[in-house]
Amino acid sequence: MTALRRSKRERIVKTARLDPYSYGPRPSRLIYHRPHFYSSVKTTESEAVIINNNGSFAAYSRSVTPNVITSLKYEAWKWTGASRPAGFHGPWPPSSATELMNVDIKLENLGTKREQNDFLKKHGDLIKDECLGKYCWQQSNFSSEFYCQREYDGTAICDHTISEWKEGCADWQVRFEVRPVPGFGYGLYSKWKWTKGDILGAYLGEMIPEKPENTDYCHEVKIGPMFGKTKAMVGYVDAEKYGNYARFCNHSCENNAIVTEARVGNERILALRAIKHIAVGEQICIDYGSDYFQGRQCLCGKQGCKYPKAIELAPVTIEAS
Ligand SMILES: C[S@@+](CC[C@H](N)C(=O)[O-])C[C@H]1O[C@@H](n2cnc3c(N)ncnc32)[C@H](O)[C@@H]1O
């Protein structure tokens, strides 16, 4: 009876894997699910200040349990006062974050052959920019019909969209785990063996026009159709109150991942990408950059730690009135 039941369960697992939206083979060594806090949709905050033995300030750790989202949160009214990015056509503010961040690379939308050639000359770098669609873990079982396929002058243009990513992000616990890390709040751990270059998912949050003063969860992203252009306007993805698993990445001076602006089909995204091989059970860490460590100490504990002491804050001059 038990054997019968087990084989039925195995059959179900096999059937699930044949589905193009399933997640490929199982990890070689499974870390079993433990109950953890990140299934809650309630926003809570906890704060901890770590003080050195001599009383000096060592680190400040703040942890917010965010509302779990599976696509960028966007409220059009917040963009009413923001200026329209160059090359952006249509009603302002746009009705979705995708519209706001869209990369207008479809050559067939660019009029005559001559206009297309002019565009290629001007934006060659944009067209060559690699689509990350096929590197996403959510797509590991996808059939070739989802791969970049259209060619123009030898350059690939593709039909990928991030909708499949969003679907995959909803089931992130298959390959990631959020665990408490003493002194850091929480951290993101891998349940999968990743290869350098793999896309671990999208960095999701709320799309807002201005960077809030007190957030440690904000990444800049270009908006409007001019992908990769220096003049492109920027917005911010803030994952403090609304986010997905990617917002739990702590900083390490030997980081194994980056949050990078990328293209999937015609859509711009912030992607979490492995820059080294990542083993099962390893913590996934990014580099917050030196600005973040102004007045803060890094707790990564790596031998080559770049910020073992808090970087001195520039003195602030207060003028007497
Ligand atoms: C983007 S969040 C990372 C997720 C966070 N640990 C949490 O539980 O929500 C950034 C916060 O993590 C903590 N943190 C991450 N890396 C750190 C490091 N290397 N040293 C000190 N604090 C760090 C800091 O409290 C920082 O404000």
TrEMBL record:
UniProt entry tagged with the keyword Methyltransferase: yes
Organism domain of life: Eukaryota
Keywords: Chromosome, Metal-binding, Methyltransferase, S-adenosyl-L-methionine, Transferase, Zinc
Chief place of localization: nucleus
Residues annotated as domain SET: 174-289
Database matches in Pfam families: SET (PF00856)
GO molecular function: metal ion binding; methyltransferase activity
GO cellular component: chromosome
GO biological process, one term: methylation
Organism for this UniProt entry: Cucurbitaria berberidis CBS 394.84
Metal-binding recorded as keyword: yes
Gene3D superfamilies, per the entry: SET domain
Compartment(s) where it occurs, according to its Swiss-Prot or TrEMBL record: Chromosome
SUPFAM superfamilies xrefs: SET domain
Name of protein: SET domain-containing protein
Entry-linked PANTHER family: HISTONE-LYSINE N-METHYLTRANSFERASE SET-23, HISTONE-LYSINE N-METHYLTRANSFERASE SUV39H
